[in-house]
Amino acid sequence: MPFKPKRPCSYPGCPKLTYGRFCEEHTKEETKRYERNQRDPAMKKRYNRTWKRIRDRYINEHPLCERCQKEGKLTPAEEVHHVVPLSRGGTHTADNLMALCTSCHSRITAKEGGRWG
């Protein structure tokens, strides 16, 4: 199967070609800009290095998507979902976490109106 052709970097004035949205140099800049300007400071407190450790440990203990398993499918888990969101008083305890594949996590988040409003 052929690769998708490279396209120009989306950063204004950058002539470099890339497979993603930004070239490698500008991906780092855009990530920093997003973290600095658009990300809610409260989110930084909730999702810090401690959360990354909890998430990694939970994924190691639950390597398969828990939703897909209920449907009889074996899909690798890629994300950890809070059953009760932190914004509504949820915690990082194991009974409030669920290992999910990306598609299941996106479906739940969209249904709850989390990321998209």
Can you walk through the features of this model?
There is one protein chain. With about 120 residues, this protein is mainly α. The protein folds into 2 domains: about 20-45; about 50-110, no CATH class. It has helices spanning about 25-35, 40-45, 50-60, 65-70, 100-110; strands spanning about 5-10, 15-20, 80, 95-100. It has a two-stranded antiparallel sheet with strand order 1-2. The model has no long low-confidence stretch (mean pLDDT about 85).
What topology does this entry show?
Blueprint: E1 7-8, E2 17-18, H1 24-37, H2 41-46, H3 49-61, H4 66-70, E3 79-82, E4 97-100, H5 102-112
Antiparallel strand pairs: 1-2, 3-4
% residues in beta strands: 5-15%
Number of helices: 5
Outline, from the CA principal axes? globular
Count of structural domains: 2
| Number of strand elements | 4
- Sheet with most strands: 2 strands, antiparallel
For the termini, the CA-CA separation is 37 Å
Residue-averaged pLDDT, rounded?
84
- Rounded to the nearest angstrom, the radius of gyration is 18 Å
Strand order of the largest sheet: 1-2
What is the N-to-C order of secondary-structure elements (H for helix, E for strand)? Answer: EEHHHHEEH
Overall structural class, as computed from helix and strand content, comes to mainly alpha
Contiguous low-pLDDT stretches (5 residues minimum) are none
Q: What is the helix content? A: 40-55%
